[in-house]
Amino acid sequence: MAEENKKEEQKVESKNSTGTFVKIILGFAFLGLAAYLLVGRNWWEHTWLVVKGCAVPFLVLAGIITLAIAKE
After folding, report:
1. pTM
2. How far apart are CA 41 and CA 65, in angstroms?
3. Is residue 13 a contact partner of residue 6, using CB atoms and an 8 Å limit?
4. Termini Cα distance of the chain
5. CA distances from 63 to 22, 32, 37, 60, 66 (A)
6. Closest CA to 59 of 49, 47, 67
7. Cα–Cα distance between 31 and 55 in angstroms, integer?
8. Which residues contact 44 (CB under 8 A, 6 or more apart)?
9. What distance lies between CA 52 and its chain's CA centroid?
10. Helix, strand, or coil (residue 41)
11. What letter does residue 37 receive in the DSSP assignment?
12. What are the pLDDT digits (tens) for 10-61?
């Protein structure tokens, strides 16, 4: 009985490690593609426009949350 449990645990661990490895490789592939698009294609202007566009809503939400916390 104990041996069966150990074998099942080993199977689960090998499946988890394989999935984790695939996710890590996929993450590096996405980061590499992003770096290529930013540096290789010179998309700095577009990227800066997106950053500036996201900054205002972020600051508004941060201000609202800060006021809500201070109100308590």
Report:
1. 0.47
2. 38
3. no
4. 56
5. 39, 35, 33, 5, 5
6. 67
7. 22
8. 38
9. 20
10. coil
11. I
12. 665 566 788 889 999 999 999 998 888 778 777 778 888 888 999 999 999 9
